[in-house]
Task: structure prediction
Amino acid sequence: MSAILAIVRRDLLLAMRRKSEVLTALFFFIIVVSLFPLGIGPEPLLLKKIAPGILWVAALLSTMLSLNRLFATDHADGTLEQLVLSPTPLGLLVAGKIAAHWLTSGLPLVLLAPVLGIQFDLDTSALGILVLALLLGTPLLSLIGAIGAALTLGVRGGGVLLSLLVLPLYIPALIFGAGAVEAHISGLGATGHLSLLAALLALAAFFAPWATTAALRVALE
Amino acid sequence: MSNRLINWFKFASPQSFYPLAGRMIPWFWALAAVFGIAGLWISFFVAPTDAVQGEGYRIIFIHVPSSWMSMFIYLVMAAWAALGLALNTRLSGMMAQALAPTGALMAFISLWTGAFWGKPMWGTWWVWDARLTSELILFFLYIGFIALQAAIDDPRRADKAGAILALVGVVNVPIIYFSVKWWNTLHQGASVSIAKSPSMAQTMLWGMLIMALAFWMYSIAVALMRVRAIILERETHTEWVKELSEVKQ
Result:
């Protein structure tokens, strides 16, 4: 447990020392969300209807951007090899790294989303559901993305390849995440969607660090 | 080992599998041709015209077998991948790599013929129906697998990374299918449904099954040809490849 905390603390510290990377992904999120009304038109009813989808797609893309640096810098300076050699199970350390990734890239999105939601005229209860869905969904994005990041570690054209691998796997999170808000707005209730999202999160929290570990070992051998 | 009828592990080595595949390929091509001709004959001349959909429904004889194959090949690919990870056999990775393009082709044919079928029947090339959407995502998964293998230079690493991706994908395929299905029903999407078509005539079913066999045989034949090429490519440095008559020339 202390090893996980040490990894999380280290990664957070590194992220704080290089704030620009974290902030770039955040501003990317804001810009993508702001581009949609410009492309579609300022019709308030239409924008309100598509807001959950837009916010979620932007969250997927913004998470994608920050996935590259999850293992790449550690791989470049040899830290990753030390992690593999350490007596602590690699799966735990990977879980720590994924948690740190979520804290620096997922959590800020969750906190920003209601502000952007107001731009799309979502009411308070819908904003609450949106935050809840993102709170359950963004860790899922970090977990699944870690598998892709480990698979494409040190590979030619890794960034584009990563999105090709990971985006199809993000589809369930997108469907249930955006669906929760839409179901709430249409009066169906979001409980079902949120439960499914939580179930996927539980599943991924168990399997993803394991698969990521296997992929890292392949990349490092 | 000697008390077994066939020593399966013997053929796990590329050296002994290469000639075996070479001997099997003509048979699978022949079977593909026989089933293909029989299936096409049934589907064009024997099967009756559909009461609702007219002659246009005959696209089903290509569409359904290719959809089946696209899903089945992904499972086979993942099974080879798992075998490769568990037993560390070289051939398994090669088989998975050889199957991927055929699977992608099947998914593409399925989408393409689906569009051709949808236009006259539903009046639209594409609906965001659960089956269409999940077939499209399956196609993306194939492309991701092929792209990952192509991007990694070291073949052993490419095999293992591809195997992990295929296994992650196979876990996700049912999740994606059901999420898309529920998404679709909640959206009250297209009112048309493939599932509600009336029960099929016996000959139509037979035509479809025989065409499915033809697709199956074709896929095996092509995968074996491709795996032979992959073996030659990866084993160029070995003595036995240099001794082969087709390489010597």
In short: The interface with chain B takes residues 147, 151-152, 155-158, 161, 164-165, 167-169, 171-172, 175-176, 179, 183, 188, 196, 200, 207, 211, 214-215, 218-219, 221 of chain A (CB under 8 Å). The mean pLDDT of chain A is 89. The two ends of chain A are 27 Å apart (CA to CA). Residues 2-220 of chain A form one domain.
